[in-house]
Amino acid sequence: MTWFSSPTDAATRLGEHGYLADPATATTAYLAGALEKPLLVEGPAGVGKTELAKAVARATGADLVRLQCYEGLDEARALYEWNYKKQLLRIQASQGDGQSWSETHDDIFTDEFLLTRPLLTAIRREEQTVLLIDEVDKTDVEVEGLLLEVLSDFQVTIPELGTVEAVRRPFVVLTSNATRELSEAVKRRCLYLHLDYPDAEREREIVTSQVPGLEDKIAEQLVATIGRLRELELKKAPSIAESVDWARTLIALEIRDLDEKAISDTLGVVLKHASDQDRAVRELKLRS
Fold first, then answer.
1. Distance in Å from the first CA to the final CA of the chain
2. pLDDT tens digits, 46-83
3. CB 99 within 8 A of CB 32
4. Cα separations (Å) of 77 from 8, 66, 70, 74, 159?
5. Alpha helix (H) ranges present in the chain?
6. What pLDDT is stored for residue 140 in this prediction?
7. Rounded to the nearest 5 degrees, what angle is found at the Cα of 23, between the Cα atoms of 18 and 26?
8. CA dist 181 to 9, 42, 139, 168, 178, Å?
9. Which of 10, 200, 212, 280 has CB 3.0 to 4.6 Å from 30, enough for a Cys bridge?
């Protein structure tokens, strides 16, 4: 089964489902499916890394299984864990049945007592699946070891049950904001795509495709202002999603000219830190 028939097919189908992919993105998405290799997408926050995985799922009719990474993530939350309370109840119930420990042991380490987490869930699914491992750079280095078996052989080893191999390989997307360097072992197993903020023309295309009622004049003003904001030293530069939110805000407020007052009144839609808003007001010489 192929996810996309060609890079052109990938670009077309992703576009039909709200994701405007440039040639590099479309080609890499096609190859990730054709070669059955995980795709590592790296870049600043808010450039569409997570959305790419969601768009692949929408374009192909696949289900999305998401592992949200965070500091302290462990095997029990990423792969699987045993339902210890249910196992204890079974052990207590079997004490009066005269079962030996070996019989009880074999009885409690079965699928009935297994709690699958995102990685194992995606591996075991027979349906078409997109596995999103989001913000992998936020995890501890040790967690990358949990990923290697999945990324290399699309299998998971459970000591009590043996090795579980994928019936149908998922389309795997790992995202990283590059807050730390990932191990070479993980990178070797992946195709690599770097996404950055789009240029003004492409961002205007994205915004107008998401917000059809936006007038060309105000779309150009919005994109130009977003570009100026991203040039400032902010805690959090505006994302593409925030550009779209701003466009929807302007339509909701029936603003047809993005002048200084309009920018100042709606700045909270795109800048979520008080210090960033203060800097924007100062640098762009807005009326506070």
1. 57
2. 899 999 999 999 999 999 999 999 998 988 899 889 88
3. no
4. 37, 12, 11, 6, 17
5. 7-16, 23-34, 49-60, 75-78, 84-94, 101-108, 118-124, 143-153, 184-188, 200-210, 216-231, 240-252, 260-266, 274-283
6. 84
7. 55
8. 33, 11, 11, 30, 6
9. 10
pLDDT the model gives residue 100: 60
Sign, Cα dihedral of 101, 104, 108, 109: positive
What's this model's pTM, rounded to 2 decimal places?
Answer: 0.86
Token pair listed for 206: 């994205």
C-alpha distances (whole Å) from 145 to each of 78, 149, 161, 165 are 12, 8, 20, 18
Dist CA 240 CA 255 (whole Å): 20
Paired tokens of 103 = 């019989």
Which tens digit of pLDDT belongs to each residue from 235-266? 999 999 999 999 999 999 999 999 999 999 99
In Å, what is the CA distance from 285 to each residue of 227, 258, 259?
Answer: 16, 14, 12
The total number of residues written for the chain in this structure:
288
